[in-house]
Amino acid sequence: MDFAYIVAGLAVGFIVGLTGIGGGSLMTPILLWFGINPATAVGTDLLYAAITKGGGVLVHQRAGNVDWRIVRWLSAGSVPAALLTLAGLHIWRPDTGTMNELIRHALGIALILTALAILFKARLLKWTRGDQAALKAHPNGGLRDWNTLATGVLLGVLVTLTSIGAGAIGTVALFLLYPLIPTARLVGTEIAHAVPLTMVAGLGHAGLGHIDWHLLLNLLAGSLPGIWLGSHMAGKVPDGALRPALAGMLMLVGAKLVW
Q1: Distances in whole angstroms, Cα of residue 219 to Cα of each of 9, 16, 128
Q2: What is the pLDDT of residue 67?
Q3: For position 137, what pLDDT does the model report?
Q4: Other residues' Cβ atoms within 10 Å of the Cβ of residue 40
Q5: CA quadruple 207, 208, 212, 217: dihedral positive or negative?
Q6: Chain-centre distance for alpha carbon 112
Q7: SS3 38
Q8: 53, 122, 169, 253: which one has the fewest Cβ atoms less than 10 Å from its Cβ?
Q9: pTM
């Protein structure tokens, strides 16, 4: 099983580095398939994502693919939202069965949303990038900053409960908010934002006892070289076939978890 965990970490790390998506939305269902209980799968995956994407940030930063201004606005919403969500779980202290059922249904919904975000990304891009002149006339603006903050709040709650959403949903949201920024830069920006969010949420789950440390080390042994390789190949490999296949798989897994 240790070797299987390493291979899973390698594959997921490579996809995250290549596309900016697939961390929680792939790893958490894989851990459930391995028989890990939902709460432990989410907690372990959050710390796994924080460390794995930390390695990806270094590569994207060297390539100039991180917009730290956007990262700050997202984090200003997501980190406090994650802390409040964790505080609610600490105060509520549900029994194991209730916690697992809550996480299982939240996971299913998050996976379905992620699949839809992946499937309709191209149409959303075409729609948001249609009026180039208008976008260039108003490149930033206060409203966009506050929308970025609100996006961070939603991601903070969703990621803390499910470990899913920072990649696909977050990246699609950035495409809508910042359609003139190159794709590689938006991917790097979302990976950079995911690091503090998943670290805070992961440490909070560690306080709830939802971390399997041996499992985490095995996943990292595969994911760190995987995300390094994927980040170097970002933008060079066509993902026209990868994204629909990934979306279809996530939709099936999400539907199974919900129903």
Answers
A1: 5, 14, 37
A2: 92
A3: 45
A4: 19
A5: negative
A6: 14
A7: helix
A8: 122
A9: 0.77
One-letter amino acid of 92: W
pLDDT digits (tens, 9 = 90+) for 50-81: 887 787 788 778 888 899 999 999 999 999 99
- Contact at 8 Å (CB) between 224 and 55? yes
Which residues neighbour 249 within 8 Å (Cβ) at sequence distance 6 or greater? none
Query: 183: which residues sit within 8 A by CB, 6+ positions away?
Result: 175, 235
Q: Which residues of 2-27 are buried (b: 16+ CB within 10 A; e: fewer)?
A: eeebbebbbbbbbbbbbbbbbbbbbb
- What does the pLDDT look like over 110-143, one tens digit per residue? 788 878 877 776 676 666 555 554 445 445 556 8
Which tokens belong to 213? 């440390």
Q: How many CA atoms lie within 13 A of 176 on its CB side?
A: 14
Find how far residue 116's CA is from the centre of its chain.
14
> Which contiguous run of DSSP H or E holds residue 216?
helix 213-233
- DSSP per residue, 82-108: HHHHHHHHHHH---HHHHHHHHHHHHH
Mapping DSSP onto H, E and C, the string for 104-147 reads HHHHHHHHHHHHHHHHCHHHHHHHHCCCHHHHHHCCCCHHHHHH
Q: Are the CB atoms for 75 and 239 separated by under 8 Å?
A: no
What does the alpha-carbon distance between residue 103 and residue 105 come to, in Å, rounded to a whole number?
A: 6
- Separation between Cα atoms, residue 48 and residue 1, nearest integer Å: 17
